Automatic annotation (TrEMBL), chains A, B:
UniProt-recorded name of the protein: NADP-dependent oxidoreductase
Entry keywords, A to Z: Oxidoreductase
InterPro entries the UniProt entry points to: ADH-like_C (IPR013149), ADH_N_2 (IPR041694), ER (IPR020843), GroES-like_sf (IPR011032), MDR_fam (IPR045010), NAD(P)-bd_dom_sf (IPR036291)
Keyword Oxidoreductase assigned: yes
Coiled-coil intervals: none
Keyword hit for Oxidoreductase: yes
Protein's organism: Rothia terrae
Highest taxon listed in the record's lineage: Bacteria
PANTHER family: PROSTAGLANDIN REDUCTASE, PROSTAGLANDIN REDUCTASE 1
Gene Ontology MF terms: oxidoreductase activity, acting on the CH-CH group of donors, NAD or NADP as acceptor
Domain Enoyl reductase (ER): 17-336
Amino acid sequence: MSENKSTQIQLVRRPAGMPVAEDFRTVTVELPDLGENQVRVRNEFISVDPYMRGRMNDSKSYIPPFELGETMQGSAVGRVIESTSPEFSEGDLVTHFLGWRDIAQADAQAFTQAQELGDVASSVYLGALGLTGMTAYMGLMKVAELKEGDNVFISGAAGAVGSMVGQIAKLKGAREIIGSAGGSEKTALLTQRFGFTQGIDYKAAPILTQLEEAAPNGIDVYFDNVGGDHLEAALNSFNRYGRAALCGAISVYNEKDPNSIPGPRFMTNIVTRSLSMKGFVLQDYLQFAQEFREEIAPHFISGEITYDETVVEGLHNALDAFFGLFSGKNTGKMVVEI
Amino acid sequence: MSENKSTQIQLVRRPAGMPVAEDFRTVTVELPDLGENQVRVRNEFISVDPYMRGRMNDSKSYIPPFELGETMQGSAVGRVIESTSPEFSEGDLVTHFLGWRDIAQADAQAFTQAQELGDVASSVYLGALGLTGMTAYMGLMKVAELKEGDNVFISGAAGAVGSMVGQIAKLKGAREIIGSAGGSEKTALLTQRFGFTQGIDYKAAPILTQLEEAAPNGIDVYFDNVGGDHLEAALNSFNRYGRAALCGAISVYNEKDPNSIPGPRFMTNIVTRSLSMKGFVLQDYLQFAQEFREEIAPHFISGEITYDETVVEGLHNALDAFFGLFSGKNTGKMVVEI
């Protein structure tokens, strides 16, 4: 690839339901020479995430919608190939949010230095040591306020965030750590690889009854990546003072009209059991980012925390990688290697 | 009435759906002479409350279900007519929780001294200055964490709790105070009597669209007495960081199978707008009871806080009073005068 051209994927149409290739276009642009205090980076990995689907809608949300005709924003990690900034030198590993492109060029402030991690691929900065791990930590510890001895239920547990939630729960002394995943293979990973006490294959039988059986003593904390029937199952199984951290609702992201869908049953349990249910976004908890890194990085480097990645090769396959998120093609964090 | 007999209403069958007279019986019992440190009280008023319907079911809840064959428990206020306790003298005004009976007799510790309030009827201790007012205060200030300038929506706003919520919100500097009530008469009370900025008659048109129109700038706090379509309307109109305090769900109390009812639409807004939704019961906030009395009593005594009562005469009409709660026959706190 030429280093003064940048190939980028842009959103050109707001998807109706499931996104399709025609909602995007790939462009290659000539890069101007670096201006003052600018940096040019060759990306090693870019991130594709379920939340991006939400930003494709033109609707009220916590972050503004993606603009049509603009390059898809998102986390990425790469190496500096040219710099006019005193803060960055050629070869530096950096993270940024400039998204789906092979070469990123911008003012120095758009980039953050990242520590070299030896044999660990830099893609970890898009996941376990990046926004994914931080999301898991904030939701579990700051939103749901996990306490030692709590029984925890995590939906989408084999996913990037979910598998981190389970491992952090274990480090923090949770008793039962029950995860749900789709299919026997992913479900097996929960106990065999990520240290969950129980795994539920939600495709095998209704999650409601499976969770009842898995948690005869009820659950105290629920980390929700899925919504819908999983949230309903949690509401049914909650003990008094149960706390739900709502991180995502992948079950409805691709509905053409999510607001037409009835909510879960068992809503009256919120009153009768004094439950709390909180939606959150990472950006409101960034004051704990340093705490997260200090508490979690050692366990990661020591290998106590493991993570799965699904690596798709090549920017030209980024769309397939993104689409694959919604049909469960990834195990763990989905990244695209450039 | 004889003062050594006590007439009492007991639950004898768990209601299926709406309670009926056959679920109860009235008994008159001979009272034994007072034992050591006991008190006999002639009730002036007893309380009938929607939450009592929940306790009639044999289900997991924050307080144990009523026992069959036992006298209905609940708040009451009366005067001491006989005492072997040094703490109580004949004529003292006391509150207690011994419920639906004309004469209450028990150990002294079952009774609490109440301040005389001059011309104000003692029934106020069952409402505005009692559990009702405290519930309003705790939900609004401690659960939903009202801040000055917030826009507030209150369902069941002409009710005992709802009308207190609105008035406390005003004292605390809320901007828009929007209440819903059933029918034009009750709705008019909200603005004319209780100082709400807007009243919505939910029987006139769907609450969803009416709230959208009443709150073009959205709502920040929702105090829920109703559940169902009202909760859905709140979810739709919430601003980012909106907080719901869920106090009751009278819309479903009499459903034979409340858990079969789908929840509200717009649940995904909990994630996309970082909403919080908390059920609560007063007993978890009693540490703020003193704060409540200190902050609110002066406004009540000065007449700044007003309240409505529906007084039904006679213990023999207590069941009709209770049933009337579910068909909206009360305006404000429903009490039975003995």
